[in-house]
Amino acid sequence: METMDRKEFLSLLGLTSAAFAVSYCFGGCQPMSNASTAPTNVNFTLDLTNPAYSALNSNGGYIYNGGVIVARTVTGTYVAVSQYCTHASGTVIYDSKNNDIYCPVHGSVFSTSGSVIQGPAGSPLVKYNTSLSGNSLRVYS
User: Fold this and answer.
1) How far apart are CA 139 and CA 46, in angstroms?
2) Rounded to whole angstroms, what are the CA distances from 137 to 6, 9, 72, 100?
3) Strand partners, 129
4) In a 3-state reduction of DSSP, which class is residue 36?
5) pTM of this prediction?
6) Where are the domains of the chain?
7) What is the pLDDT of residues 36-70, one digit of tens each?
8) Domain 34-140, what architecture?
9) Dihedral in degrees, nearest 10, Cα atoms 82, 87, 93, 96
């Protein structure tokens, strides 16, 4: 029976760990779930006096609603785009510092109109229309 010395064991352990790390990294670029599909036929109204939507009363605030991220930009306009990154389905956030939409999973950056500024995402986010009437913000396809 042949035995393995310590150096061979540690070398084999290192190669095995590296193989797992590589497969994990490549697997991480696969879509996370079917939740990444952008909603269609969007049509909802947010009452901005409702505390659940209070973030939208300040420039830079944002909320999620039904697969849509709704943000009040640093200039005070309202924008709405699909909530899930087109690269790997991560939930995007509105970055008021840069006035863009950012995916923290792999670093994709989108404009507030949904277009890709920086990949790895290659497709834009779906953009929805917004219309403000008094304290009611309508978001629709």
Assistant:
1) 8
2) 67, 63, 11, 20
3) 140
4) helix
5) 0.74
6) 1-30, 34-140
7) 688 899 999 999 999 999 999 999 999 999 999 99
8) 3-layer Sandwich (2.102)
9) -100
